Amino acid sequence: MTERKVGVYICHCGGNISDYVDVHKVRDVVESEDGVAIAKTTMFACSDAGQQEMIDDIKEQKLDGLVVASCSPKLHLLTFRGVAKRANLNPYQYVQVDIREQDSWAHREDHEGATEKAIRLVRAGIAKVRQSQPLKPTEVETVKKALIVGGGIAGLRAALVLADMGIYVYLIEREEKVGGWASKFSVMYPHDKSGKELIGELLSEVAKRGSKITIFTNAELLKKGGYLGNFDITVGIGGDTNEAETINLKVGAVIVATGFDTYKPKQGEFGYGLKGVVTLPEFKAMVEASDGKLEYDGQQVKNVTYIYCVGSRQKADVENANTYCSRYCCNAAIHTSTLVSKVDPTVHQFHLYRDIRTYGKYETLYEETQKMGSVFLKFDEDEPPVVDSSDGTLRVRVKDLLTDREEIEIDPDLVVLVTGMVPRENAGLTNALKIPLGRDRFYNEIHPKLRPVETVIDGVYIAGAAQGPKNSSESVASALAAASKAAGLVMKGYTELQPLVAYVDPDKCEWCGLCAEACPYEAIEKSTDEQRGKEIATVTGMLCKGCGGCVPVCPTDAIQVKDYEDHTIMDAIDALLEEV
Amino acid sequence: MEYDVLVIGGGIAGMESAINLGEAGYKVLLVEKEPSIGGKMILLSKVFPTLDCASCISTPKMAETAHHPNITTMTYSEVMEVKRNGSGFNAKILKKPKYVNESACTGCQDCERACPVNVKYDEFNFDLVGRKAVFIPFPQAIPKVAVIDIDNCILCGACERACPASAIDFTQVPEEIEVNVRSVIVATGFKLFPAERKPQYGFGKFKNVINAMQMDRLLAPTRPFNTVLRPSDGKEAENIAYVLCTGSRDRTVGNPLCSQICCMYSIKQAQLILGALPLADVTLYYMDIRAFGKGYEEFYKQTRDMGVQFIKGRVAKIEERENGNLILRYEDIENGGRVQETEHDLVVLSVGLLPTPEITSIFKEEKLELDDYYYVKQVDEDLSPARTSIEGVFVAGTAYGPKDIPDTILSAGAASSEATAYMETTRRQK
Lengths: 580, 430
Hints:
Number of domains of chain A: 4
CATH architecture of the largest domain in chain A: 3-Layer(bba) Sandwich
CATH topology of the largest domain in chain B: FAD/NAD(P)-binding domain
Shape of chain B: globular
Largest sheet of chain B: 5 strands, parallel
Strand content of chain B: 15-25%
CATH architecture of the largest domain in chain B: 3-Layer(bba) Sandwich
Distance between the termini of chain B: 21 Å
Number of helices of chain A: 14
CATH superfamily of the largest domain in chain B: FAD/NAD(P)-binding domain
Largest interface: A-B, 84 and 86 residues
Number of strands of chain B: 24
CATH topology of the largest domain in chain A: FAD/NAD(P)-binding domain
Strand content of chain A: 25-35%
Strand order of the largest sheet of chain B: 5-2-1-13-24
Number of helices of chain B: 8
Oligomer: heterodimer
CATH class of the largest domain in chain A: Alpha Beta
Helix content of chain B: 10-25%
């Protein structure tokens, strides 16, 4: 019999669990488990009242272990560790049991089975918490400096705001000059601001910050070492990485703002390659350069036909399909058409689209261009427009859904392919930082709804179009948001590292190096144990992520992860297998 | 009392701004006019495109806000006045009486059960079921404290007698609190378009015409009926229509803007309905499907593949049949533009967002400017999206325009970032 006093709470999750699992039965069964002092059901364990009830119980009954059977620990592990902390219970003496994602949701058709599984899972949780020891996170100082990768509008804006917060900034840019895409545009929606001027404004502000911001161009991130709040970054400067000069930077946080590329149509895709077929960025440059009249190849342009969603919203069976919507292109194309009308109001403009996505206030741009005379034709994704010039005339054929699928022929002077955004080729950087990519091959955030600038790599944030298509002001907003998260990490001057790390039993260890090979974080090194007169493995706790990769490879069972020791896991498995 | 930042509004924009600032070490006062923090998001069922349960992902934010050592939260309180005071601001806040002692109430709901007054308004379920005159706002409310709706209370004392914690206190009076802050973040959110303003759709007149917020409640884990029932006769709906752009992209109601979220929330609800009522047909009547955010287009495609019907055409008029079913009249644009009439047994109006311009009146001496559409004006959208016409006052979330949740989180990050930079630079200048 154990001396432990464990509190067990089984959550209804407002029906998400209790519609399928008999939570009262689970409570009744586990109540008599060894060490359980109190077992209750609760409507929403995560609600304030639910949390308060646990805190009161822990304090009154002097509990030394807490089990909450609810949702995935991804959602509420930190919530309930917080509960333990507020009740003066060590947060690492809390175990979360997932009876929602791994039980009630998975077995909706089998209530009895789901209930039995819940009982087993909760028993295993109780077994685990019985073995738990109080653990303390390691507090480490953070470096009040940040590294920004990418000197486009997002990177530059993040640099400024961080400098203003009193954080020293290094910014590295792969190209010869900072400024990115925005610096190539002279007029951008929605305020007709010049991208060149915006970048100019940012650069003059950067200059005013003096030594608080250091910019390296022709520079690439080669390696990231160190740990949260104390990263060691190796940067290669100057062209070919073999001959590159390298510098080492110590920073507390990293913001990746490497931007996007524009989609390059394949030869023949909507007539690409034919004379008179251009992409939106190419067309935009022509419009911006036009002086009073729009010309192409020495001829005046009187008819422009836009084809939308080129390289976006592709069918999944296309090779390397971009199934996503590129978000900015409807707005950008429509804004460009208003510029064309301003240059020469007599130009006929036809927009062949699938859905016009001028979301929010951009809707007024759509209204404006219709008033200026742009004509919109909607095509079916299965019957896209066909562009050819086989008889010497550039011709577009489209079946217009708005006029009963009538086939319409247009002989434009220019076909503008409204091309979307694609992720940048950044294999080296992605490898060095280990940031995961999404299905769309843009950098993936940790949670698309609530944590859009954070990544699974603590201390590494993503901003701007590197995370997914965005226009310039949206990129700026996300850069500022990333800066806010970085500031939260480095401004306090310290952060806590989780204590669930590997440790070595020096008596058992006979240094073979297998654990060091298995460690993806370079956290294990060989050292000499003077006392025992042998070489053993040593774990650097600040680098260890507690992944456990080292544990199964050890031939002498000398390495363990705290709170996940073999005997704890065996106990949990035994409890799981016990008859219900 | 002194704080670094006053955050007005406790929805996700306000909470996210407050948490960011609290994490960076600033003292934050967050003021929410409703009895609980959480805003609109906590009322939702699931969110697109991940179908995360909205309350599961908002409650951690709510709890973090409420328990953060650097954040003080005031609910059921309104900021009445903000005035410049030296390099910062002086704010007057009215704390409305809940008639319940907040520290004594345990949220047990005995008062609710004892109260004899049924009120037909219901802020949580959007009038679907009504509530009592004393009520807990909703199951995950923070703070989970009862509030007495004094306008409907008959002062019978039943709640007082029922309360095991003696928390009911009819002697409470409004309290005015004055604070000094260095910076202000306006995160006052949006209003839903009142569907009555499109009388041709019959909302408020035809029982089976509901708005999308009501449908979200019908689908939520804390749903009132445990299935999707239509209001007129409690029958499970079999053939549901969505009317998109209700009150958006519509100059006849004075709102030319696209509300940015209705396409996606309607698509999300369609998926959830297919789960709740596997035999039901769902049809969306739309102008353009605006699935523009990360993962949205793929979610839209998946919904089409699941069998949800999408018909391009704006609904002109809805009529009610004797059995409560509804006839939708619309132009079927992609099929020759013929005027069609189709019968459905439940109609959901995908209402858009409207601004909350009232917030400008609290700013004295300096003017918080609005844009052409009565949203808080961004004076430098391109480079400082959170900046307003008043130095030191920033804006976050839908207070400056329609936004989905990820964009709201980004804008809240921008506001906290700019407020931090503002406070640090003014501090250094001093």
